[in-house]
Every structure is written in structure tokens, then in C-alpha cells.
Fold DnaJ-like protein.
Amino acid sequence: MFDSPLSASAYEVLQIDADASHEDLRKAYRLRLRQTHPDTGGDAVVFVQVQRAWELVGTVEARAAYDRGHGFADARYAPDGAGGAGGAGAGGAGGAGADASSGWRPRPADTRPRARSFGHPGGWRRERYLTLMREWAGRGTELADPYDPALVRTAPRELKRLLADALAEEASARIIADLGMGYTVWHDVAADPRDAALKLDHIVLGPSGLYAVLSEDFGGPARVRRGELIGDGVTGAPIGDLVAATRAVARAARVRFSGVVVVLPDEDLATAIDEIGKMRGQPVAIVRRSALSTVLRRGLTGARDIGGNELFDVRTRLQSVVRFV
């Protein structure tokens, strides 16, 4: 929250004008606390957002900094703000080197063993964002910085969503990279060569199993109802689409996935890890980003561990069929 292109501002969360007096701001905060408190029927996720909003604008000093733009992690919009996993796959076997449009950068002077990585996390969405941003700005318009926060906030939601999802993929990729050399990850994998939008953000193979991971940012709270994600910013059927893409890759590679994982910003989920059962035979978990490493290390409930020759065989099968969007 608040560092995403889709985020509501602190004032919007508190439901008050940005030029309101400090006393009116305080009254709005107290009202929103009562409205959103879980003990009175409110939403726990929104309740936390209200408290976070107050932290950003609740004092004269904090509010002044926020209004100057310092309350947003704006640097994360730009490619240079996205660190990369680097690793053996950064430039091999279908991967490519660092690319300004993808936002993917290897970490300098970091010699820790990292997951073997292939492909560009968030690269497809960043490229789409840049193309559509230039079209939206108008032919011949000079865009000195397509990631300028002021520009991003005035863009259509579809554009902001592309950038938010690219940032989400990059954030998950950094976490996956830190799992270590026992893991292999493929980013932005095409599930259907005819439809670039049908893809797997990450395929993660390690001792705990083989997992398809979807990294999303809907710009607000999300929850599960009848096996699918719902929320103000949720469109389509994210879990259903993820399972369908996973099954397509599984058939092509002749491998069996241990489960699928949907990763959302911490502030947008009420619980850290929610294993919601199976969809079309695939165990499904909805997790906060901070819990992603835990899930991938321990695996999902009932998932079978993979080791030894089987791990090598699954990696070889995937490597032979994986294509990137």
C-alpha cells in the first residue's frame, strides 16, 4: 500500500480532502477507525490501512513530507529501483541480460549462492506499459520519464495496473532468488504461444516441490470467496487463470506441479498464508509477499517433496519446453 501505482492516497483511505485542516484530518481518522474496526464488523485489512495512512499524515512534519512526495516509494517505479536475482540464468537458456525496459538488474557485489534464474520477471508487463504509456501520452509527445509518479497517477487504471504487476513480479523474484542454489526459477513463462497474456509469472522448482506463482497487486484488499479472489480491484478469475496456465505448462513438459501460489502485498491480505484447498486437482495458497519464502521452503500441505534424480529430470523437462513471453 501507498508505494504502488494503484494505491489510494492516505487522504483517500481516510476519506477526506487533501487540503483539510489538521483537526478535520484527526476527526476523519477517528471516524474511519470506528468504521473499519474488526470488532464492530469492519474489515481488518482496511483497518490496518487506516492506521498506516495516519502514520503518513498524522503529524505536521509527516504530512508535509508526504505532500512533497516523500511518503511514496516512487523510486520503485523505475527500472533502476528493481534489484535482480542475477544467477546462472540471467543470460542463459532462454534468459537475457539486464534490460532497461524489464527493470531487472543483478545485485552488484553480492556473492551469496542464489537460485538459478531464467527470464525477465515483470519484463513483458514493463514493455507493455512503456508502449501504451507513449500511446496514451500522444504521438510525438516527449516523455522524459515514463515512470514519473505525477504522470503515473494521472494515467488510466489499465496502465497503472501493468506497472503495479511488473513491480509485484520483480519483488517476488528478489525473494525467490534468496532461496539459494537448490532452487531453479523461470520467469514470465508462456502458457499459450498464441496469447502472451496467458503466462506464468514464476515457476519455482526446489526440494519442496514444483510451484506456479502468480504475483499480483490489485491496489487494495482482496479475499477469497468460493475458491476465487474478490475485491474492488480484482478483475476476471486470477486463480482460475493461474490453474489453467499451470495445467498447460504441465502437459507440455510432462511434469506434475505440487501446487499454485498467489502472492499479494502484505497489507492486502488479512492472513499471511491461506491454503484454500484444491482447484482442478491443484493445491492453492494465497500468501502475503513476506510469507512467500516460507511457503516455497516448506511446501504446501500434502505436497510431495522432490529430490535427487527426480529434481534433475523435472528441471530438464521444463528447460526443454519453456518459452518466454
About this structure: The CA atoms of residues 55 and 302 lie 41 Å apart. The mean pLDDT is 86. The chain has two domains: 10-67, 74-321. The longest strand covers residues 199-206.
